[in-house]
Amino acid sequence: MLSLSSLSSSSSYLSLQSHNNKLFFHPHISQRFDGRKINSENFRYYTIKCRLTKTKDSSSASPNANSLTKEPHKYFDQVIITVRAGDGGHGAVLGVPSQSVAGSNSKGKQNKEKEKAKARWKSSYKRDFDGSLILPVGGHGGDVVIYADEGKDTLLEFHNTSKHSAKRGGNVDSMGVLSSLLRNGLVAPTLRVPVPVGTVVKHKRGKLLADLAQPGQEVLVARGGQGGISLLEVPEHKRKRMMALNTNVMRDDSDKVLVLGQPGEEISLELILRVVADVGLVGLPNAGKSTLLAAITHARPDIADYPFTTLMPNLGRLDGDPTLGAERYSSEATLADLPGLIEGAHLGKGLGRNFLRHLRRTRLLVHVVDAAAENPVNDYRTVKEELRMYNPEYLERPFIVVLNKIDLPEARDRLPSLTEEIFRIGSDEVTYETEMRSEDAVQSLSTEGAKEDILSPGTSNKDKKDKEIEDYPPPLCCCRC
Ligand SMILES: Nc1nc2c(ncn2[C@@H]2O[C@H](COP(=O)(O)OP(=O)(O)OP(=O)(O)O)[C@@H](O)[C@H]2O)c(=O)[nH]1
Predict the structure, then answer these.
(1) Quick one: 233 and 285 in the same domain?
(2) Ligand 1: distance of its center to the CA of 431 in Å?
(3) Which residues form the domain of 31?
(4) Which of 284, 291, 335 to mutate to test the pocket of ligand 1 (most atoms within 8 A of CB)?
(5) Which of 26, 77, 43 is nearest to 356 (CA)?
(6) Are 243 and 383 members of one domain?
(7) What is the pLDDT of residue 395?
(8) Least buried of 76, 94, 347, 454, by fewest C-beta within 10 Å?
(9) Which residues form the Obg domain (predicted)?
(10) H or E segment and range at residue 382
């Protein structure tokens, strides 16, 4: 038997040959049949064209549960979902209740009873200010709202359930006859979808809808359909008059009254998580970022003596220390320990781009450098370069360099020279940046002023950031390649 599924080749055609009504894959399988060497003269060769259905490309397919548990770091911060708001409930076509009065004998009495019944009928229904009848309407379909929930950490669960649908509105409970007891259809509840704080909501490959950076922030992403209206089943000549009276009647393009509820909106969204942290810890793998986070906050990240122990950002809360007195130092802050960056991270190496984007909201960067490494200065330069290549704005943020592992003798011995070199790199950059800025007519600033301006991003930068939060454009790599 020929198993096509075992053929991973994407070529469109296979060549097959026939022997005793059996088909063999040509040329490899045809060499032996029932353990005997096959005389090639017994064969009649046919070439049969058969198209292979392409096997699903695993890279483009949505991640299955297995890969989600094995490689959550690839999927925790980005997902595409579809949301569907509920359809509106239907209205109803209602008959007017019979007004005949049974059992009345005399014609005059019958007319009187008819008049009375008509008056009763007229007064028992809700009416608009202009006297038109208010007929029940179908319930509004449920809207879909996405909100930032502090209890959520990742977007992983959305890979399992990528479609979220709100309920449809209730229909008018139609018994076929107009009665004062008829109620509007039930309004469907809003479907509220919780996402981690810091989630950016965008149209799939489209414009930004919201940046849910604060707990509780929400955005309405799909509107539920409007409920259909009800109609009275009345003779044609009366219907026109009633329709004219009912000014709030909904009609479609062809001026037809809509009894059916409107469909709810359906939309594909891209959710991107950018951690919300004041401080970002950056450095090469194994530099000791997680150890530092664990030492100064209550966070308990995984720590091990091998690179890439951290695969997803860890957050830690730094409580303020009021004993320090000065307002600056007693403030609280959230720290994010990012996975280690390697050379080429800005190009996506080691998932670098996924991690680098989590620095976006940070206001201070802490470079953790392994002082006992072979070439700590080079390591520091590498990380700075990756930051610059990904987003030059990152280098404009205030930063601290932490020389780590100085308990080790190899680090302790070269500490003074190392500190000096790192200082020099910093001051070189400040001078360079100052020069750049002075060319942009910031000459009036003193060196100190310029430094300050560089270290604390100005308002224009802030405006730029606030304008639109999109993914950064492709890397600037080519200037170096
Ligand atoms: N001697 C010494 N070892 C340290 C120090 N800080 C961290 N380490 C060790 O260095 C190794 C790596 O530490 P981590 O905190 O996991 O490093 P990381 O930068 O978070 O590593 P990644 O998760 O790969 O990014 C662990 O074995 C730590 O025990 C330090 O100050 N002194």
Answers:
(1) no
(2) 33
(3) 7-45
(4) 291
(5) 77
(6) no
(7) 87
(8) 347
(9) 73-276
(10) helix 376-390
| Chain mean pLDDT for the chain | 70
Same domain, 323 and 416: yes
Q: Please state the pTM of the whole predicted model.
A: 0.63
Q: What is the pLDDT of residue 253?
A: 52
In the block, tokens 């080749």 appear at 9
Between the CA of 287 and the centroid of ligand 1 the distance, in Å, is 5
ipTM, two decimals: 0.97
Residues 112 and 190 reside in one and the same domain? yes
Among 180-194, 252-266, 315-329, 464-478, the range with the most confident prediction by mean pLDDT is 180-194
Domain count of the fold of the chain: 3
- Whole-number Å distance, alpha carbon 309 to ligand 1 midpoint, is 9
Report the range of poorest mean pLDDT among 244-258, 273-287, 345-359.
244-258
Q: Is residue 442 part of a domain?
A: yes
Residue ID of nearest Cα to ligand 1 atom 3: 405
| Residues 195-205, mean pLDDT to the nearest whole number | 90
CA distance 137 to 227: 6
Same domain, 32 and 91: no
Dist. CA 141–CA 87, nearest whole Å: 5
Average pLDDT over residues 105-134: 67
- 285 and 265 in a common domain: no
Q: Check whether 220 has a pLDDT greater than 60.
A: yes
Query: The CATH number of the domain where 314 resides is what?
Result: 3.40.50
176: left (phi over 0), alpha (psi -120 to 50) or beta: left
CB atoms within 10 A of CB 344: 15
Q: Are residues 199 and 285 in the same domain?
A: no
| CB under 8 A, 24+ apart: contacts of 286-291 | 286/340, 286/370, 287/340, 287/368, 287/369, 287/370, 287/373, 287/379, 287/404, 288/368, 288/370, 288/404, 288/405, 289/337, 289/338, 289/340, 289/368, 290/314, 290/337, 291/404
N- to C-terminal Cα separation, the chain: 52
389-446 pLDDT, tens digit per residue, is 888 888 888 899 999 999 998 888 888 899 988 888 865 554 444 444 434 432 222 3
Residue 59: pLDDT above 60? no
The tens digit of pLDDT for each residue in 340-355 reads 888 877 777 777 777 8
CA of 290 to the centre of ligand 1 (A): 7
Residue with tokens 């198993």: 3
**Which of 234, 258, 273 delimits the end of a domain?**
273
Ligand 1 pocket, residues with Cβ under 6 angstroms: 283, 285-291, 303-305, 307-310, 339-340, 404-405, 407-408
Indicate whether 3 pLDDT > 60.
no
- Helix, strand counts (H, E) of the chain: 13, 20
Q: What is the DSSP letter of 285?
A: T
Q: Cα separation of 139 and 227, whole Å?
A: 5
Q: Which residue's CA is the nearest one to ligand 1's atom 16? A: 303
